[in-house]
Amino acid sequence: MGSHASRYEATLGKYTKQIDRAFAQARDKYDAHRRAEPILVEMARDPEVMPAVIAKHIAKWQTFNTKNFPSLGMNIAMSPHYVLVANAFFPLDEGPEDMMFNAIHHHGDLLLTTVNAFGPGYEHWVFGKARPIDLDKDLFEIPFQEKGIHTLYNAAFVDADQPHAVVYPKALTVTFALWASKKPVTWRDHVKRIRVLRGREKKLKDLALKLGLRKTLDLKVPEYFDYYPVPDSAGTTGFYGMRKRAQFERGPNEDYIQSFFNVLQETGNEKLLPFIFECIDGKKIDNPELVRRYAADVRAGKRIPNKYSEGIHTNVPHMNFRAAAVLKNLPKQNAA
Hints:
This protein has 336 residues and is α+β, with helices and mostly antiparallel strands. It has a single domain (2-183, 218-328), classed as Jelly Rolls. It has helices spanning 2-25, 29-45, 49-59, 187-193, 201-210, 253-266, 273-280, 288-299, 323-328; strands spanning 72-78, 83-89, 104-105, 110-118, 123-127, 131-134, 139-141, 144-149, 155-158, 164-166, 173-181, 226-229, 239-241.
């Protein structure tokens, strides 16, 4: 396992050290993102980076027990200042070409810089901040700002509280996504990186809220992060806000493994197959036979399609809707 592990650590470390410096030298988080953008583009263009990202993902053997999600995330780096991940977005096998991948949403105080590192990209829609029409009905109007294709090696910045959405890509697309709060580093950022406390952030947050420490500790209680078009039957126009986030459910591990091997195969990283078995040897894997089967299919050149979990990852009304429905519900003075 040494050669692959040391190689990916060196490859990724070359860039994460540059990003560390960008954040250390920046005036604020916005400046840090501006400084980091060309580094991310250079990463995306480096043919050694994608294999290193996938190898790092494989090296954590527990990844092969992951439950399925519509997109596949691979951690690249985590610090008190930022998180850097690779996100694989998969095409939709059937349905309208203008189907949205997820709800119109924003990320609160998080800043996002994303670079397309593999594939044709997706159509990215950006909106202005939602304005309430009737809060009793969770009804909002959302002005449209712009849309465009997030093409290969393109960099895009999404501001804090900036609503946006993406359309399903025509083919596998992998982006590098840099996340950072627009606020200065706080105790929360360090808690997330302390191994013994990782996974307990919600319990700590709930306790702090009960103790009345929300303002003191700068805790954010999210509300209305996601929106979807009002259906025609409602007799009005606009967008419903979700007072409580309703994300996609996790699907079976079998579906995750299939999508993982789709990413491995389509990015041309078959050379990592032996590394998979080095990492999982002697470990408790939920579906070892499936891993061996897909590995054999990759070796044989048999195409492995991605897998959305049936009934929970597609045709979810508040998450998957047509761009045409978005256009129909924009404010009358505002059109895409």
